[in-house]
Every structure is written in C-alpha cells, then in structure tokens.
C-alpha cells in the first residue's frame, strides 16, 4: 500500500530524528517564513561549563569553593543547563554540597533556596543585582565581555560571587543558519534570556544579526507576536521551560529534546530527538516536497 505523502514525510522525519506531532504540523512546516532560535541549549550545545569563579571582595564568603558549594546547593533541584554546569563543577572540585530546602525557580531569572539557614539566590545579574551592587556588577561585565554567561550568587540578598559559564556553539549552527536563510529568504533571529554581550558573541559566529536579548518568557512571546505581525509564519526552536510559551505562540514550535525540559517538549509541535540542528532545515524541505504531491 502507498502511504499518503504527509504521513510518509512524517515517517521520514522520524527516521532523521524529528518527531512531528501531527500531519497538520508536517504540512505547515512548508509555510515557514522565518526561524527564531533560542541560544542556550539550541544554538549552543547546552552542556555549559563553569570556566571562572569570581569572589566578591568583602562579601560573606571568602573563597571560590564556598561560592560554588552555595550555588550548587541552591541549584540541586533545577533542570536548567546552567544548574547542571554548577553541580558538575562542584563535583569536579569534590566539594561537599549542603542540603537545601524551599526551592523556587523563576524561568529566565534563576533560582532561590534556603541553605544552612540562609536565603540563597542564583541567577541572572539583570534580575538579581541592584544599583548598590557595584562590585558584583563590574565582575559580571568583565565575564560577559569575555563571552561568558554570568550567573550571580547572593546570600541573604548580598552578592558573594559570580560564575562565568561558557557553552560551545553547536558545530552545525552556522551551516544550519545559512541553509535556513536560503530556504526562507530571511536570516534567522535570536531570542534569548541571556545577556546581550554573550548573545552578540554567539550570534555573530552563526550569521544571525537580529538579536533580541535579556528576554523573559513573556517577552519571548511578545517578540514572536511582533515577528508574526506581518503574517510571517514563524518557526521557533527552543529547549527550556522559558521557551515553552514562545513555542506555543509561534506558528510552529520545535523543542530540542536531549536538553529540552518536559514543558518545552509538551508545548512544541515537534521534537528533535537526535540532537542535530540540521534536522530543522531538513524537515522544512521534507514538508515542501510532500506538499507537491497534495492537491
Ligand atoms: P536562554 O533563553 O538563552 O536559553 P534562559 O532564559 O534559560 O536562557 O536563562 C536566561 C538567564 O537567566 C540565564 O542566562 C541566567 O542568567 C538566568 N537563569 C535562568 N535559570 C537559571 C538557573 N537555574 N541558574 C542560574 N541562572 C539561571
Ligand atoms: Mg534555552
């Protein structure tokens, strides 16, 4: 028996490592007019490493091991790639990570928890540092200028240190971006919760010039609506909880499955299970080919 073209295309996509949730999605992929990528875990490998630890002089903690152990304690329950990096670094240094309680997670911002009777916050400098925190701000900017994602650690509201976290760009990112630009006639866009300095550094290496940085989950949704306002069918690719609303708001949302959070996978219309970015232009091409056979 011959399979209908869209179902055959879905089966082919599955063999290439992309699970497409319905035939409607398979068909819609052909309409893609522009692609928007998330940064961490999507354009980058999502296996970031703690590269630098800076201690805030005069702060509550005196050395980098103490800063790292506090951060790791608070991050334990988090599924964010930056949390995994922090815990791996603590393990590498063979640190004793204290227990934590009352964990809360704010997507796009960071985490908080109680550790040894103190309130620990770990996350984005933009959301955790205020004007008074000048030393921590300076440390943060130095790390970001080097292309790191800076994560600040606060104990009872006072900055104690900054982690500089580095993530490798996926080897296929530049090629993928160029293929997508050729297919859609427009260069892809970057939507990231990370800081603008790190975003520019990564985007410029993959041929992406439209960079929207420092976006909270709701701001990613607003950016999707703006990019779709002229009728463009936007395909959003992301991996995190923070991407879930944008994946749902876009004409098509695709989640990166390996590092992807369950919420992103649920919100998406398709899931890349083989962890290969080149599957994105491949499924757009597949959809266009399948539609040629549908009248
Ligand atoms: P992206 O959009 O690039 O994937 P996210 O929106 O997930 O990034 O995160 C944006 C920023 O929020 C991070 O760069 C970091 O500063 C902060 N952040 C979010 N979650 C965490 C976490 N669990 N630990 C530390 N920082 C976090
Ligand atoms: Mg991400």
TrEMBL record:
Domain of life: Bacteria
Official protein name in the record: P-type E1-E2 ATPase/heavy metal translocating P-type ATPase
Cellular compartments annotated: Cell membrane
Organism the protein comes from: Micromonospora pisi
Family label: Belongs to the cation transport ATPase (P-type) (TC 3.A.3) family. Type IB subfamily.
